[in-house]
## 1
Amino acid sequence: MTGVIWRFLAGAVLAALVCPLAALEPSALEPSTSDRPILTLVNGDETRRLSLREIEALDLYEAEFRHFEGKEGTFTGVRLKEFLAAHGMDDARRVRFIGADDYTAFLDQEELREKERLLVTRFDGEPIPMNDLGPLMLVVPEDAEAVLAGETSMTKWVWSIVEIRAR
Ligand SMILES: Nc1nc2c(c(=O)[nH]1)N[C@H]1C(S)=C(S)[C@@H](COP(=O)(O)O)O[C@H]1N2
Ligand SMILES: [Mo]
């Protein structure tokens, strides 16, 4: 009897260790060497264009999950908070993300604090083409399952990001 209970507990602990909620892990990918500008950063009245090499200059992290637009695999990128801090945008009242399709969504300070968001630069190790939700995507790995289950909103999972503005 106790054997059954122990086996159940051991199973539960193992499952929790092996299958965390799409947790962010350090990535072993080599940062890009591409100098082609793919992102416009607007901070107050300063505008800059960044390449994949410049975006991936920070530590890379990854998570495995299924995105509601269909992609299932490994999403790699930089932590949004670190990226904003590196570009002096971390104390902006609002940060706006603009897609190539002109879709826009913003995050306020509370949203930036409450969840770990990843600015995705790669899918399954490769840069993401413009016509396949690239070049950059905003995702919340810890919410991936809740979004698929219809329990959490995905309006701030912007894809095809080409511009980020702080004010
Ligand atoms: N670039 C871009 N990102 C986007 C959107 C979009 O139209 N363009 N739609 C947003 C909204 S409103 C939602 S609910 C989810 C899912 O959008 P969909 O229902 O149009 O697939 O993606 C979000 N990210
Ligand atoms: Mo939506």
## 2
Amino acid sequence: MAAPSKRLAPALAGLAPYDPGFTPVDVLLSANENSFGVPADVRAAMTEAVAGLALNRYPDPMGNLLRDDLAAWHGVARENVVVGNGGDELLFNLMLAFGGEGRTLVDCPPTFSIYGLYAQLTRTNVVRVQRDPETLDINYDAVMAEAANADIVMLTTPNNPTGNLVDRGWIERLAASTDALIVVDEAYVEFAGADATCIPLVQKYDNIAVLRTFSKAYGLAGVRCGYVIASEDVINGMAAVRQVYSTDVCAQAVARVAAQRHEEFQPVIDLLCQERQRLLDAFAEMDGVRAWPSAANFILVRVPDGRQTHQALRDEFSILVRDFSGSADLPNCLRITVGTPEENNRVIAALKELVAR
Ligand SMILES: *Cc1c(COP(=O)(O)O)cnc(C)c1O
């Protein structure tokens, strides 16, 4: 683990380089990637699209052709879409544009740790409204109350790492109740069924911004492309602060193919949802393992000794999952990405053996 730099600005003191905790293994289920990758036909079209690109020319800064494809897919206008170098960059830009010194973000931990990091980087105050330790649901009343005095409310649905949804009817009531920007992070929404998305609410509420990514369901984590759908006013704010050329020509071309052919990813998404249920059924049979229901492509489990189980999975079974056992919010918890049927078989067999020891 690298040490923090002694030259960091005081507000950033203690920050160290991000360590994704990767180790070479056979079965990589730690980052919620899609183990299947892109369907072969679609992949061939992406290769062709990239082969013809002029790499000596700057990309279209806003990625307007990609914006048009995304707008057509989601039934909005180009002016309602901004693209970025992965969802992470867009989260940073949201806080840069609408947070900052003297502004407040409402966060609902345990959730994606990037929100807290970017709040710190942009000097945004954070109000933490803790989830119920048992159900892992957000505290709806407390979030609604805090939102009245906040500038940004961060809602993740399905949430990472807990896998549960935020009630959509409540999100609508929240948006109506406050001027704060409600950011709905839908990085995993494709695994939650066709009705889960809040994109239809964007037409009605100019303070809802929906974040989507090609990294998870669409198997393109390496390409770094995501987008936000929101009112023209929110999109203009984000466009004003973004790194002008952050979405490169290759990413734009590849993402256009994925957007145009998004329906061809549905069979793999459906299979991953079936496999999620198969894993949940298997975990339910194991003594000492608690698994929370999930609407995403991962499952949060609690085991008797999280750290030891994580290490044994890695070192004895060559399976890497995400270890949350050190966090105060999720003691002894691991997050296991749903993989291919073969990968999931290995997870089931290994965990069965480990908890029987
Ligand atoms: C993975 C993820 C993202 C975005 O990932 P990118 O690869 O940067 O697009 C955003 N939010 C959550 C909760 C995620 O888990």
